């Protein structure tokens, strides 16, 4: 795709003639907009009276969102280019109905809200990078007086690897006066979010993305009516200020809906507006996203991409409208990107679900969720993205009601709330989509269905764009995460590209087999609009398809598709249908449970003798859960008396639930969440004798990996203290909010495991991982697929570390694998372990049929190296099994350059300097601010500039404090705790005497800290309080220089620095005088002896310094005049050196060393 983009950088605050209207919603047809409402069918998009309404049919009873993605076109944030989206917010039907407009990359499902989104209600303006990832949430400003007839604008500019994001609110009623404007920067590192964590931190540079408008239904009490917002004039400024969709044709086209496959989401164009909503109240938090799939946008260095959408209105206060940029390679379900979310009371800038740069609740935009414009602006700056969100008052000349700017850097940025900025890189260079989203913020299951009405999905690109834009994969079928498909199903998709795609540039990789036009992939359509299909599926298979498209210039687009062709006759055990207490005993079960509505006619839990609903289990017999029993509430809907969390799974609709009446009859597909390590559920069933592959259907959001084991209960299932044997493991990987089938495998996830079952059997699902957020890991069901007899069950790997594909620090550099005897026993003498092709001796210990294979990695592999492992073993029959996998080493190693010799330290302690700014200064919490405050000649005013000598680092702002691990804290030097203990920055300089080997340190800090040695950062947490553990590898014993930087902005303040014994875990303060083996710290260090050349007439000496030698340390050479017929030379230095070459000529000897 060729195109030129104007180099000039500008921001249009009015309806510029250069603006291209995506949709003015005047044709009363929703076209180009793809609705997302979690598949619930409850969301709707409607065009009526020249406006676009995003809303929901029924109150969902919980947070919910409906998104509308404009699909005919995509946009890419690139260096030097500004992309601006605008939409007019005509109004919202209630305070908690947020309207959002955003940029969501095409390869990220809109459900994730990952992108850049400006979100607006009557009281909040939010700039989001993803769900719960807010750069800011502003609640104070002129725009709070303007809830309707405003324009939401989000402008994103690529600057280097950063994205500069500017949001505006324009007053439509007052000549588009700017009521609010704010600019943020999203860098490749983790930026400081007001709400949530910048994770992953990379800006969405270079990623094609869509224009998305969204209604977020923020119902925290479950009492709100259905939300809706009314929007108009979806506009885009790119080159000539393109509008993705003005919603005036009355048809939703080019927008792909995401609603978790539930069918509950609605996208509808009506009266010139886009409505995102939901058909039914989902009874929990829920969102509907609309991804504009026709065009993507890439955030590049020096480029600004700005999305905007007009939020016409939302139907209730907790209906968040979200505007997002979501990279194409991130499923929209994860909301990983930059998203601005807005309801009446909040403005959020998120980098992903639960990762907020900020969450603002004060400003002029308060109670404004109608007739405003959400603006999300992303500018690439180096490897960072500067993200600016604005809320503009469409009723007052687009006056800026809110503006906030944050920077998403390559490092871990400070999020105001939510998860950590991990991975921290910005989304720079990643093609992404414009995504509109409705988030239904129902925290107690009581809110009605949400909806938002949007208009004028708009994007602007300022700066120079690359000549070629990537191709776009569209209209992919079957739907992601589809299950129980017939084998006759075909994979179909479209490919759009202005230059045209040759057939050999399109492929589908299906479970590892590549299909092209030469071996089964059917090519149709035209070169610029291909229509593709692939058949030949097999029944009973769990599929992973990868669609790859490459244009003539090498630009690519990729889609991952997961689905299965399992039979509906396969046995399915619902995760929530664990054993219960019956009339006579524990451990009761139902072989073929009924599917019944959640509530009876009286509104109570619908206990039915043939169903598990309402039954309670016995703790320690039927289940074990860390939550208390009997608390009920919105997360205990299916089994309210138990501690197990049971909520609507938000999986795709299954036939048995639809046939029982579906959502219209109150039939809910429940799942289990709030999962914690050590919990377990027992399932007793009567199995038909046979052999089975087993799959766990689960969704894993924002968690790298999870581990569960399937076990057979070998004792009575109605008694306590049951015994079990491990059958296999479920190793799950992050999937976003889409459900996938995780197969039962060995403990390393390398080979599938077949289980043999017959008659009444009790199985146990045991959790070995914890969902740190409580609601990001859902388990829906276990499926048992009959297979052929696998033969004799031979020894099975039941666990191991490091896992395949994992990253391992120096302290964890070893191999440990457990092997369990089954029908045959492990032959211990047959065990072989090879590391990187070299066979090494491993230790094997056996107890009660469980063998542990252990191997220490010595020497330590270099950091960054991929370590290849091959484990092979045989059994008593001589049958061998071979397992191959790899992992990566990641650790920090100290350079010996500049280190002193052991014993060269003197003057024990730390040189400490603390500076403090006036309390009234509004300083940000970051290491960068601390460095600026500590810098010589700093322009930050200092009311305290104090130095001190510290014996240990164990500080608090409180007299006699005891924060962290160690008591007897010392007051930070120079401060008056009765006056001001905020706005502090401190550095501590010292030299640590370290032995060769691995050292592990810990820092407890409130707020940020950094530890470095020789300019190398070895430990950091940028923003907020933390307990951080990090390690270093020391190759040579010596005395090493260290520097610690710490800062505190507000609230509590404390700091500890300690070492951790790798064998015992014991924590000891650095330089603790009361602990003999503490790591010693010194304020000064004797300089290491200089490099000298010594010579002798005989190899045995004696050697003496050769004063005539000329040493060039930069070149690594020593030049000595020739002397005598034979001479022997050696180098003397504090560090080990090697003479690599000797040259003789022109009357001199030249030694080259390294």
Keyword list:
1154 residues; mainly beta; Immunoglobulin-like; Jelly Rolls; 6 domains; 14-stranded mixed beta sheet; 1% helix; globular
Can you put this structure into words, describing what you see?
The chain has 1154 residues and is mainly β. The protein has 6 domains: 21-461, no CATH class; 485-564, Immunoglobulin-like; 571-787, Sandwich (Jelly Rolls); 796-888, Immunoglobulin-like (Sandwich); 905-1085, Jelly Rolls, CATH 2.60.120; 1092-1153. The chain is 1% helix and 50% strand. The protein has a 15-stranded mixed beta sheet that branches. A hairpin with a 6-residue loop joins strand 27 (384-393) and strand 28 (400-408). The chain is globular. 60% of the residues are buried.
Which oligomeric form is depicted?
Answer: single chain
Rounded radius of gyration (Å)? 31 Å
Shape type: globular
**Main sheet: strands, sense, barrel:** 15 strands, mixed
Note the total helix count. 2
Note the beta-strand portion. over 45%
Distance between the termini: 51 Å
Extract low-pLDDT stretches: 1-18
Task: Explain the layout of strands and helices.
Elements: E1 20-23, E2 33-36, E3 43-56, E4 64-76, E5 82-92, E6 97-105, E7 116-120, E8 122-123, E9 125-130, E10 133-138, E11 150-159, E12 162-171, E13 177-187, E14 206-217, E15 228-237, E16 243-245, E17 255-258, E18 265-278, E19 286-298, E20 303-314, E21 319-327, E22 338-342, E23 347-352, E24 355-360, E25 366-367, E26 372-381, E27 384-393, E28 400-408, E29 417-418, E30 430-440, E31 451-461, E32 472-477, E33 491-496, E34 506-510, E35 513-515, E36 522-526, E37 529-534, E38 542-550, E39 556-564, E40 571-574, E41 623-624, E42 645-648, H1 655-659, E43 670-673, E44 680-700, E45 705-713, E46 724-733, E47 740-745, E48 754-767, E49 777-787, E50 796-801, E51 807-808, E52 814-820, E53 826-835, E54 838-840, E55 843-847, E56 850-856, E57 866-875, E58 880-889, E59 892-894, E60 905-908, E61 910-916, H2 927-934, E62 944-950, E63 954-956, E64 970-971, E65 984-994, E66 997-1006, E67 1009-1013, E68 1016-1021, E69 1026-1034, E70 1038-1048, E71 1054-1060, E72 1067-1069, E73 1081-1085, E74 1092-1096, E75 1104-1105, E76 1110-1112, E77 1117-1121, E78 1128-1132, ...
Parallel strand pairs: 3-18, 11-26, 12-27, 14-30, 51-58, 59-69, 63-64
Antiparallel strand pairs: 1-15, 2-4, 3-15, 4-14, 5-11, 5-15, 6-7, 6-14, 7-9, 8-25, 9-10, 11-12, 11-20, 12-13, 13-27, 14-21, 16-31, 17-19, 18-31, 19-30, 20-26, 20-31, 21-22, 21-30, 22-23, 23-24, 24-29, 26-27, 27-28, 32-33, 33-37, 34-35, 34-38, 36-37, 38-39, 40-49, 41-44, 42-43, 44-47, 44-48, ...
């Amino acid at each position: 795709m060729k195109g030129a983009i104007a180099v000039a950088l500008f921001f249009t605050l009015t309806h510029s003639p250069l603006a291209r209207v995506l949709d003015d919603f005047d044709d009363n047809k929703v076209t180009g907009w793809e609705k997302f409402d979690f598949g619930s069918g409850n969301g709707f998009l409607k065009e009526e009276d020249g406006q676009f309404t995003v809303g929901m049919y029924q109150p969902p009873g919980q947070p919910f969102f409906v998104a509308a993605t404009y699909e005919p076109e995509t946009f890419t944030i690139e260096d030097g280019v500004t992309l601006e989206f605008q939409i007019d917010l005509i109004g919202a039907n209630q305070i908690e109905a947020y309207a959002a407009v955003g940029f969501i990359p095409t390869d990220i499902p809109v459900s994730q809200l990952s992108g850049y989104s400006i979100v607006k209600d009557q009281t909040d303006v939010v700039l989001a990078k993803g769900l719960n990832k807010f750069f800011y949430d502003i609640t104070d400003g002129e725009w709070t007086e303007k809830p309707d007839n405003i324009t939401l604008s989000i402008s994103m500019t690529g600057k280097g690897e950063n994205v500069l994001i500017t949001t505006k609110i324009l007053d439509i009623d007052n000549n588009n006066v700017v009521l609010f404007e704010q600019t943020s920067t999203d860098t490749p590192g983790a930026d400081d979010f007001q709400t949530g964590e910048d994770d992953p931190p990379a800006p969405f540079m270079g990623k094609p993305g869509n224009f998305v408008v969204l209604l977020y239904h923020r119902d925290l009490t479950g009492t709100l009516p259905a939300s809706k917002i009314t929007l108009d004039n979806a506009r885009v400024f790119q080159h000539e200020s393109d509008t993705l969709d003005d919603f005036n044709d009355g048809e939703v086209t080019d927008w792909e809906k995401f609603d978790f496959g539930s069918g509950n989401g609605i996208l509808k164009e009506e009266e010139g507006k886009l409505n995102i909503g939901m058909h039914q109240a989902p009874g929990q938090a829920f969102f509907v996203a609309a991804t504009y799939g026709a065009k993507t946008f890439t955030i590049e260095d020096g480029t600004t991409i700005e999305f905007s959408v007009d939020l016409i209105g939302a139907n209730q206060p907790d209906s968040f409208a979200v505007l997002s940029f979501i990279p194409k390679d991130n499923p929209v379900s994860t909301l990983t990107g930059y998203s601005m979310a807005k309801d009446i009371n909040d403005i959020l800038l998120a980098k992903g679900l639960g990762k907020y740069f900020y969450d603002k609740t004060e400003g002029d935009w308060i109670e404004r969720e109608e007739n405003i414009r959400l603006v999300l602006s992303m500018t690439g700056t180096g490897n960072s993205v500067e993200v600016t969100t604005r809320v503009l008052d469409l009723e007052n000349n687009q006056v800026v009601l809110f503006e906030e700017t944050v920077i998403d850097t390559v490092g871990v940025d400070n999020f105001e709330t939510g998860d950590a900025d991990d991975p921290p890189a910005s989304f720079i260079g990643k093609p992404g989509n414009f995504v509109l989203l409705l988030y239904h913020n129902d925290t107690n299951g009581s809110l009605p269905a949400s909806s938002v009405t949007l208009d004028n999905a708009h994007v602007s690109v300022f700066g120079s764009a690359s000549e070629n834009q990537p191709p776009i994969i569209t209209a992919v079928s079957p739907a992601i995460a589809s299950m129980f498909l017939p084998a006759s199903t075909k994979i179909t998709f479209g490919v759009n590209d202005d230059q045209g795609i040759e057939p050999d540039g399109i492929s589908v990789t299906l479970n590892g087999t590549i299909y092209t036009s030469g071996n089964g992939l059917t090519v149709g359509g035209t070169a610029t609009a291909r229509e593709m299909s692939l058949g030949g599926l097999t029944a009973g298979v769990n599929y992973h398809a990868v669609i790859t498209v490459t244009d003539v210039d090498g630009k690519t687009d990729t889609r991952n598709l997961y689905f299965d062709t399992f039979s509906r006759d396969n046995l399915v055990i619902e995760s929530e249908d664990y054993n219960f207490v019956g009339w006579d005993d524990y451990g009761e079960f139902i072989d073929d449970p009924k599917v019944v509505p959640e509530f009876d006619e009286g509104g109570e839990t619908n206990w039915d003798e043939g169903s598990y609903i309402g039954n309670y289990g016995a703790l320690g017999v039927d289940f074990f859960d860390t939550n208390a029993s009997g608390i009920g509430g919105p997360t205990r809907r299916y089994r309210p008396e138990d501690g197990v969390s049971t909520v609507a799974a938000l999986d795709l609709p299954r036939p048995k639930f639809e046939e029982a009446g579906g959502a219209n009859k109150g039939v809910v597909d429940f799942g289990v969440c709030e999962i914690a390590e050590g919990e377990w559920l027992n399932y007793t069933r009567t199995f038909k004798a046979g052999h089975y592959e087993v799959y766990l259907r689960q969704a894993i959001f924002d968690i790298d990996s999870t581990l569960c084991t399937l076990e057979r209960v070998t004792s009575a299932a109605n008694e306590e203290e049951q015994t079990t044997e491990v059958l296999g493991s479920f190793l799950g990987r992050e999937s976003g909010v889409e459900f996938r089938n995780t197969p039962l495998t060995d403990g390393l996830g390398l080979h599938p495991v077949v289980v043999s079952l017959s008659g009444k059997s009790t199985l146990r699902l045991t959790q070995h991982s914890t969902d740190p957020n409580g609601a990001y890991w859902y388990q829906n069901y276990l499926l048992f697929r009959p297979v052929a007899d696998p033969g004799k069950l031979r020894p099975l790997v039941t666990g191991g570390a490091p896992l395949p594909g994992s990253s391992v620090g120096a302290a964890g550099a070893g191999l440990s694998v457990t092997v369990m005897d089954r029908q045959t026993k492990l032959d211990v003498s047959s065990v072989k372990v090879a590391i990187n092709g070299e066979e090494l001796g491993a230790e094997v210990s056996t107890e009660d049929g469980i063998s542990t294979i252990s191997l220490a990695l010595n020497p330590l592999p270099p950091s960054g190296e991929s370590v290849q492992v091959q484990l092979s073993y045989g059994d008593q029959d001589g049958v061998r099994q071979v397992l191959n996998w790899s992992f990566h080493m990641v650790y920090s190693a100290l350079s010996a350059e500049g280190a002193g010799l052991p014993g060269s330290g003197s003057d024990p302690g730390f040189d400490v300097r603390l500076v403090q700014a006036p309390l009234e200064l509004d300083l940000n919490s970051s290491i960068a601010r601390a460095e600026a405050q500590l810098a010589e000649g700093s322009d930050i005013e200092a009311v305290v500039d104090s130095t001190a000598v510290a014996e240990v680092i164990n500080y608090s702002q409180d007299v006699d404090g005891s924060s962290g691990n160690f008591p007897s804290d010392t007051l930070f030097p120079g401060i008056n705790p009765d006056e001001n203990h905020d706005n502090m920055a401190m550095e501590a300089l010292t030299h640590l005497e370290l032995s060769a080997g691995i050292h592990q340190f810990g820092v407890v800090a409130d707020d940020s800290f950094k530890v470095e040695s020789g300019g190398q950062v070895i430990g950091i947490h940028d923003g907020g309080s933390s307990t951080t553990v990090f390690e270093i590898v020391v190759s040579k014993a010596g005395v090493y220089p260290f520097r610690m930087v710490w800062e505190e902005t507000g609230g509590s303040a404390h700091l500890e620095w300690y070492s951790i014994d790798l064998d015992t875990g014991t924590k000891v303060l650095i330089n603790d005088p009361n602990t003999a083996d503490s790591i010693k710290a010194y304020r000064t260090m004797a300089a290491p002896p200089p490099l000298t050349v010594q010579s002798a007439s005989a190899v045995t000496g004696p050697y003496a310094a050769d004063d005539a030698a000329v040493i060039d340390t930069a070149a690594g050479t020593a030049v000595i005049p020739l002397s005598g017929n034979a001479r022997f030379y050696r180098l003397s230095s504090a560090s080990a050196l090697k003479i690599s070459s000797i040259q003789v000529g022109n009357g001199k000897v030249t030694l080259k060393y390294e």
